[in-house]
Amino acid sequence: MPRIALIIGSTRPNRFADVPAAWIQAGAQARGLKLDTLDLRDHPLPLFEEPLPPAYTGGAYQNPAAEAWRKRVGEYDAYILTAAEYNHGPTAALKNALDSAFVEWINKPVSFVGYGGVGGARAVEQLRQHAIELQMAPIRNAVHIGLEPFIGILQQGRALDDYAYLVQARDAMFDQLLWWANALKTARLQAAA
Predict the structure, then answer these.
(1) Treating both helix axes as pointing N-terminal to C-terminal, what angle do 121-133 and 92-99 enclose, rounded to 10 degrees?
(2) Distance between CA 105 and CA 76 in Å, rounded?
(3) Concatenated DSSP letters of 32-63
(4) Which of 134, 31, 150 has its CA nearest to residue 85?
(5) Most exposed residue of 4, 63, 112, 165, measured as fewest CB within 10 angstroms of its CB?
(6) Average pLDDT value for residue range 18-37
């Protein structure tokens, strides 16, 4: 079974990210999957400040926090990122977390749970481009929590499970992420042999 990390990409107080993160965890448990949650609040990373790009250092970082982060994310075969959309893009904390590792991301799939005015689609689109540059494999299926369910949860006592299309999107995301995680893990092992 591939190891999957759920990275919470917002560090704001009163963030919405905890709602989809708990919902993704519940969906994973219902499928018998184990996800480890990596909350960026628990990993206070400095803004990228390395004197050399990690491509020139074998992926090593001089900053101890970044070095610990890269080793932590390197333990996983696949990733799901919660993606809040701020000003038509992802959070600075999430982009910085991606920049604070390098070789650990290579040839591993990533998916997204976006939220915001248009379901975080603009933030997710930018994150897909970043993932490609990091040599990750961003999968097509993702979850996009638009304004209506966002308000329904915050103001009307609704839950993400109340929206059948979101449940279907989560299931499709898990199916595709697992397929790619298994395929790429096999390919990485063969390449290393």
Answers:
(1) 10
(2) 9
(3) T--EEEEEGGGS-PPPS--SS-GGGTTT--SS
(4) 150
(5) 165
(6) 97
Burial string for 11-44 (b: 16+ CB within 10 Å, else e) reads: beeebbbebbbebbbebbeeeebebebbbbeebe
Side chain identity at residue 189, one-letter code: L
Between the alpha carbon of residue 179 and those of residues 21, 141, 145, 186, the distances in Å are 21, 12, 23, 11
Q: How many CA atoms lie within 13 A of 112 on its CB side?
A: 29
- Three-class SS state of 31: coil
Per the CB < 8 A criterion, the answer to whether 104 and 66 are in contact is no
Are 149 and 166 in contact by the 8 Å Cβ rule? The answer is: yes
| pLDDT higher than threshold 90 for residue 32 | yes
3-state SS class at 172: helix
